[in-house]
Every structure is written in structure tokens, then in C-alpha cells.
Structures
1.
Amino acid sequence: MVGLKEELLKSIWHAFTALDLDRSGKVSNSPVLGVLSHNLCTVLNVPHDPVALEEHFRDDDEGPVSNQGYMPYLNKFILEKVQGNFDKVEFNRMCWTLCAKKNLSKSPLLISDEDAFKVWVIFNFLSEDKYPLIIVPEEIEYLLKKITEAMGAGWQQEQFDHYKIALNTSREGLSAWELIDLIGSGQFSKGMDRQTVSMAINEVFNELILDVLKQGYMLKKGHKRKNWMERWFVLKPNIISYYVSEDLKDKKGDIILDGNCCVEALPDKDGKKCLFLIKCLDKTFEISASDKKKKQEWIQAIQTTVNLLRAGSPPPHKEARQKRKELRQKLLAEQEELERQMKELQAANENKQKELETVRKQLEAAAARAAEEEKKRLQTQVELQDRFSLELEREKMVRQKMEEQVAQKSSELEQYLQRVRELEEMYKQLQEALEDEKQARQDEETVRKLQARLLEEETAKRAELEKWHLQQQQTIQMTEAEKQELENERMMKEQALQVAMQQLKQLELERKEALEQYEEVKKKLETAANNTKSWKDKVAHHEGLIRLIEPGSKNPHLITNWGPAAFTEAELEERQRSWKGKKATSE
């Protein structure tokens, strides 16, 4: 049923696409769909339900008509109800009537409209199962070969190869109307008249569409009268029908075939030749062919049909079509796989090319670096040789100078030791000067504390005097009776004030003496500081000698006693006289 549904859909697709469509691709007039659905139900022997159609294409608040497709309705209400008891030719003719007028070419063709209809039906049978429908070059070649063989002409393979090349460069295949134009143009039937081409198309149509495996005139023996009558026999996959003539208008009966049937050749008898027998479960049919060749062909065709029924296989042309389709799919898969492998190989090749290019660039860069390094190495070697020669000469000169300095420094060693001893003595004197400075600072601190104490006493006295003066002012304001007493007290307080003034003066004198002592101590401190500074200057001038006494660094010193720290005997005596003079001045 799936294959039947697919074949029906192809014809319906042609009819549907021929209807008036709006810009969105939907049918603009829903009554047209009603007519189409009614015609389909009529030819397919399916009950028509117009209410279901209107319900399916209702236009309400839920959305416009375009939201409801025709294909869901077609599958649910028509195709699923098809039983197969319909006339395929009538069904296809109805669909052809709807689409032919709009799509059929207006140019004159060498075939009739009936032949064009049959080519259109054959196209639907051989086309690919994808939309829009096309027929691929392989199926075009198969169809043209069948028509050419039916005409009794020779197949022009070279001519079709040229046509196939031109076709493959522009598209994948032909539409139904392009196929009709191709056959109707007579390009592959040159020299044949219209009747021959029409008979060939009809023969191919009968085989591919009507499943006619074989047909022709033969004699059949009657079951009742036992007389022999000429009948037109048509062999199909499960039945042999016989008619009065080949126009198929007056059907006389059927021979139902199944797996239990068999066919046997019979010897000539009763003046009839080329006899064979068809045995079925309920009846037996005796038939006479026109000659032995026809007899053998019919026996073989009927036996092949029975064998296919036993095996449950489809008719030969359908099985061949399925094999061609599977072969195309296999070739397409192999081609896609080959293309995929080619892409992978191409990508791998490109990667290898990139890797080789990278390696080449790396080798070139490495060669350039090696040449540059070799050049630098040679240059460095020359520079090292020159530098080595210069350093060798410089080393010789240094060695000579060192020998001279060793001799000179040996003589200066005793002087250096004497200077060290003198510096140690000077260091002791510096320690004494530092002790004097420390004692002077202590004395200064004592004087400062004394001065602070005297200032506090003076402040207290002043406060007391201010208090007495205040009391005196208060006493003046007393009554006249108390004036005498207050006068006496005032006199006593004045005396006490005089005494206090004298004590204040005495404190002033003591403070001045303290200031003088402070100035004296300050001078001593400055003198001690100057002495300390002079000793520090002396030590700074003898920095080289002090380093010999202090803990030395672990690193070797470049400055020795023969360097900047060294001085002569005259300089030493001059420094000693200067130091003694400064010491005497400070004392």
C-alpha cells in the first residue's frame, strides 16, 4: 500500500500544483479543493465527506486557511481509505485533465494527446520519489530504449550519450512536460511515423503501467460447447484476461493465476497445433498459439508469472525499476563516499603540503641560522685570537709592573707598620675625647635641670607676690576703722614684699650664674664636639689604615696600603703637628 500511495501522490501532486495558488503558495479558492477532493474520491471509489473538508479548512479565530494544509486532509480522508479497487487509467486521466492544459507545450508535437497522457503516466512511474518530480537520465535512457525496441528500431547510444552530457551540465533530470517534449520532438525516433511511435508508447504503457506482461491473439477452447474461438489474451501478474478483440471493449473472462497453477505443452490434436494447457484449482484451459515460437513465449511468460507468485516477487518491470533505483542509490552513496574520501585526501594533501612548506621554511631558516652562526663563530674566533694576543701582552706588562711594585712595597712595609701603631694611639685618644664629650653632656644636663628648678621657684614667688598684691588691694577697700590695722598689716606685708623682692633678686643672680655656668658648659661641649670632629676627620683620612684594624670583608680589596690611603713621612709629621696644635687650643 505504501508504493500505491506514493504513485497516487505523484499524479495528485501534478493536479494540485496546476491549481490557482496565492503568493504564499496556498490555494486561494477553497471550493477548488472541494472539486478536486470530490473527483479523487469518485475515481478512487472512496466515500466523499464534504463536511470534513470544510471542517479541515475552516477560517476562524485560531488562524487563517493557510495554517491548514491540504496534504494532511488528503492522507487522512482519502488515501488511507483507498483499497485498490479502482481504475488506474481513469484516476490518472482525471489528474491529467487538471494539469495538462496549463503545462502542456503549445508547440506541435509528433505524438497525440493520448500518447502524451501515457508518457505522463510513465513519467510518474519512473520518476524519483522527491518533489518537484524529475526523471533522471538513467530512467530516460531506459524508457527511450523500451520505446525504440517496441518500434523495432536500433538504439542510438552515441546520440543519447551526447544528450546526457548536455543534460547533466545544466540539471539533474527532466520534468514530465520536458519528457513529453523530448519524445514528441522525434529526436530519438527519426524515420518513424506517428502510428509506429504511438503503438510503441502504448506497448510500453501497457507493460509498465497496466502490468501487461504479454498480450496477443490465440485460440481458446470453450468449456461448454468445446468449440475454438479466437480471443485477445492479456497476461498480468496474477490474471489472464481474454477479450473479443484488442480494443479491450468486450471482455469474455479471466484466468486467475496463483502459486498452485501450472502450464503444460500439449501435443497437436483435432487439427489444432501449438497447444498448451493452463491448470488452475477449479478449471483447466486449453489454448492454441499461432506458431511454435508464440506457444513457447506464452508458456514461458505464464510459468514465469506463476513462479513470481509463488516467490511473492513483484512484476519484472517493477523489480527492475527497484533494482535500478537501488543501484543508483548505491552508486550515489559510493560517489558521496568517494567524494568524501577525495575531500579527506585533498585535505590531507593540503596539510602535507603545508607541513612540507613549513619544513622547507624551517630548513631554510636553519641553514640561514647555521651560516650566520658559522660567520659569527669565525668572527668570534678571530676576535678571541686578537684579544688573547692583547691580553698576553698586557699580562707581560702587568707582570713587570707587579715585580716592580713588590720590590717597592717590601720597602714600604716597615713604614706601614709604624703608621698602624700611630693610628692605634690616635684611636685611644679618640676614645678619651669621646668620654670627655660624654661627661660634658652630663654636666649640661645637670645645669639644665638646675635652671629649670630655679625657674619653677621664681614662678612660685611671682605667684605669691601676685597673691599678696591682690590681698593688698582688697584691704584698701575695707572700712576706715580697719584702715589703721590694715595699714600696719600693709607695712608688714611691704616689708615682707621687700624681703621677697630681695630674695627674688637673689634668685635672679643665681639664675644668671646658672646661665653663665650653662654657657661655659656649652662651650666645653662645643670644644669636645670639635675635638671629636677633628678626630673623626683624622680617622676618615686614614680610612685605609682603619680597615686593617676593623673586621674585613671576605672579598679581596683592590685598595692596599700602597694605594690612596698611604702617605709619606713629611705628611705624617705635618698631620701630627696639626693635631697637637688643635689639642693645645682646646685645653
2.
Amino acid sequence: MALAASGVGGAGLRTLMVPLLLLLLPGLAARPAGMLQPRDTPSRERRELGGLWSFRADLSPGRDAGFAQRWYRRPLRQTGPVIDMPVPASFNDITQDPSLENYIGWVWYEKEVLLPPRWLQGDPAPRLVLRFGSAHYYSIVWVNGVQVVEHEGGHLPFEADISSVLQGSPEPLCRITVAINNTLTPHTLPPGSIQYMSDKARYPKNYFVQNIKFDFFNYAGIHRPVVLYTTPAAYIDDITVTTTSSDSVATVQYQVSVVGSTANSLSLSLRDQEGKVVATADGPVGELKVLNPNLWWPYLMHENPGYLYSLEVQLQAQVGRALLEDVYTLPVGIRTVHVTSSQFLINGRPFYFHGVNKHEDADIRGKGLDWALIVKDFNLLRWLGANSFRTSHYPYAEEIMDLCDAYGIAVIDESPGVGIKLPESFGNKSLQHHLAVMEELVRRDKNRPSVVMWSVANEPASELPPAAHYFKTVIAHTKALDPSRPVTFVTDANYALDHGAPYVDVICVNSYFSWYHDPGHLEVIPLQLTAQFENWYKTYQKPIIQSEYGADSVPGLHSDPPLMFSEEYQQAMLREYHAVFDKKRKEYVIGELIWNFADFMTNQGTTRVLGNKKGIFTRQRQPKAAAFVLRDRYWKIANESSCLPPVITSHSLFL
């Protein structure tokens, strides 16, 4: 699919994604160390910088005027016309300017912040960190004209220690300038390519399109919160926890890293939800024993799902003559995950994924984080009886993941490896970037009990021979980073041709029988879906999740007998799939994830009417007829598998 923009010189655009030479002050580069979520604690403060930022798109022929004229050296308003832009939000749908809707290239954001004097004073002064939850796709950040960090990737956090830039400054003003580029190449995640249209009889001068091989809109901008936070000069940099349980005892193994001091002491306390200390330990590496633990259970598997303990880590460190203290509290869920040849076990009990695929997508704000939308979606998930979702097709915001932990929603945590179709996207350059992305993802989400499996990609061209080495390497690397969780990728390849499937722990397969294949012929679903499952299981002897299935439906469009795009056809397709699921989930099918939770925006095309309509909810979160079919099914499955007294209804355990 193509996203068009005009007025850009070809030679200039080809250089857009070439990393600029970094002239960083010592200690300002992005470190491959901890990425603890910023929290207010007795030793730490945080300030969100949401609201209106100054914004300017670089409309120069080469999209390079901002760098040539050094817009970061002075307030952005002094460089030319700026507009207000909300953060977090995608910039595409905010204005009435169609050129911004489909803009490709560099855009510039700026925010001026007055800092509390206490953040800049002291001996030693606090450490001051600037953190972005995500910005799509390639970001370069300056503070008061000094470059502090650059980051590739649109769905994971990055940060920079900016203490040395600001401390000692005569004015407590922090001017944050961000340049963001949404250009995708064959080596980005997700990949894309720029195509230049040279036929002057058909296209304007310097016309190009951004081609992508994924079916959602390439929204861009600062999508998640921007935060300034402080820590002491010596601080807790990272925490890693893993949990095991047997009989009436659970073990929480931990590892804590400290930066800024070698003369320090660490103490840890694990508290239950009533604030009672249930275990203590000292030192950077060790374990805590919990008697009669409250385990973390998924929604509808237990009367108290999503149980979280609080692990309080306290650091005392000597820095010069000063004795510093740092405190960080990490939510901890005690649970185990194990995969057999036919089951997915959570805490030793079989778990069946009855859930959804989602997108971070909504009217106006695009992929921008929106608390009202997030809470609405979780209320709909629980109304639906869904116990899980996949973060299709990129890591979701930490705020969403927090609620998954708290509500007991099991997550298949997916990398932005979607649209890997071209042979050059399987080369070493792409592979090395993919490995780095998995490191960032695991570092961010490794402690989350809701994350029960990693997915490294969605629908790659895994039938290509280079896919064997590529996915063997990515999956092995992910397992080395986190041996405690299974790893998969989602395939739509033929079972006999898939070069990546031998390396996954769970087979996740997408299919759209009677939609993209044999459109309109619901009668072929039983035969084709049954053959799909039997062929995959016979070949690999691994449990299978139907990771996508579904049909577009236009709300209010009705047809009986069912015809494609009607609400009745969507209902009928679901029922045909469900009949096969019910037979095979008695054997080795361990889950079903509908595509999609809600309608979402895509590029324009002859098969897309204002986006993809496969949602069981509209983009505005109103239910279609299929939502009630799925709700009845999910609550029925929950009742069958639950050991809760009394029998669960669709009204218990909700609200």
C-alpha cells in the first residue's frame, strides 16, 4: 500500500533516515541499561509534559531545512510559522491540512518547561532524566540546543540523562526540541520503502509514495507521555524478577543493579495488597520466600484475578560525603507459565486464550495515548469475557500494560516486526535491528505477570529461505534474554513451507477462509480450517492458537441470507470457525483471538472504506452484532473451565 506526498526532492529524501553525526556530551547517550517505568517515590519526582507543544513540519524540498538552519538552536517559533500540537497524539488527523495527513519526512516539536530550583541544586545534585514513552519513528532530541539522544523505533521508550546540560544553568528553563521522521525503509521495524514516480505525464515533479506491507495507518508523532523525572545521584537502575511456586511456597528471585556508587547497601521488602510485609531480603541478588502466596491469575480463572504484590527496593549509597537514599517500588505478580505439546499452563492449570487482537487507534488522536479510551476498552474486554489479547502489531503503552497486570488480562507481547516481506528485510542489517528491538521490549516488559509470551513478528514472508536463519536467531536471542517465557511469531504461510515455525514454542496461525480465500463461501470453512489445524499439528506437535480470523462488516448493513460486509455475514463466519474450535480445543488448540477488537484506520484503497471494518466494535467502541456472538461464547467457555463458586455469569466479576 502507498502513502502519497509531493514536493520532495528525491536526493534529499534518500538521506532522511541516515543517522546524523552525534556530538553528545559525556553520559548523554541512550544507555542499554535499565528502563524502569518512572514513578513517584520518597526519593523520586516526575512531571508529565503533556499538553500543547509547538509544531512545525519541514516542507522544504529535501525535508532538511531544520538541520541546515539548526532550528534546535533557538525557539522554534523564531524559525518560522508554528502551530499548536497536542502531546500525546498523532499529528496526522489534528488539522484540516491534507498534506499533513499524509506527510512523510521530518517534523519538529518543542516545549519550554520551568524547572523547580531543587532539581538543579544540591551536593550532589539530583539526576534529571527526560523520557519519551514513544515517538514514531526516528527521533532526535535536543535540550537547550544540545543534542541529548537519538532513537530508532516508534513503539518503545527512550530517555536521556540531561543533568549536565541543565545543572549550573543561570535560568531554570528547559527547552526541549524533538525532530521526528516517519520514513520507513526495508530495514526499519516495521519495514517500508520509498518509491519515486518519474512519469512526468502522470505525476507532479518530485512525487513519491511510502509503500508499506501492513494494513494499518502509519500514524506519526509523539504518541505517549513525555516525562521529566529525578533520581538521586546514586540510584536503582534496574530490577529483574522471576517467580516460581510449588505447594504453599513461592519464590521471587531478584537482581538489582545500582549506578553511581560502589559503597552501598540494598534492602528489599515484599508487601501484599494490605501493605503487610510478607518477605524481606538484602543485597543485589537473592530470593524472597512467600508462604501461602496469592498467585496472579488471569481474568475469569480466579475470583481475585491480577493479584499484585509490591516489591520495595531501598538503596543507601555513599557519594562523597553525602549519604543518599533511593526507593523504587515494583508491582510483582507470582505466576508460572509452561507449554506442553498440547497445552498452555498458567500456575499449572490449562489456560485457553479467548481474546482479541487490538490496535492503538482512535478518531482524531490516532495512536496517541488516551486514558478515557483505554479504560473504555478494558471495560469492553471484561464485558466481552475476554481474558487475553495480542499487542498487534507493536508493543503497547506502559499504561495499557499496567492495567493488564492489575486486571489479569494475559498478553502476547508483540514486536513491531510486521510487514517483513521483502528479501532485503531478512538481511543482517535488518536482523541486527530486530535483535536490538527485542532487547528493548524485554527490558521494558520482563517483570510483567500479564506478559505470558513474546511474539517476534506478524505474517512475515517466512516461506523465503532466509527466514530460517533470521527467525532461529531472533527467537534464540529472545529466549536468552528471557528464558522464563515461550516465544512465537504469527504466521500466515503454508505449514509445509514455513521456515520459522520449527523454532517457536506455540504455533500462531492467521487465516481468513471465506474472506480473502473463497470469498463469500462460508461452506468451505469447516473443511479448510480443520485441515489447517491437523496439518500444523501433525507437522510440529505444538499447541496452536488461531491468532487471527474475521470478516469486515459495515455497521448497519444487513443481509439475509448473509452476504459479505453485512453484520450477518460476520456473525455467520464466526460461528463456522467456532464450531471447529470447539472440536479442536479438546485436543491441541489453546486459543482464539478475533481480528479485530475495533475498526481501525488504514491507508486508502479500493478494499478499505475509511479503514478496516473487521472490528466487533466500531472505531467509536459501539458493538456490532458479532460482539454479542463472541460475548456469549466467551462467557460459556469461562463457565466451562472455571472452578469458581458460584458459576460465573456475564455480570459477576465485572464493574
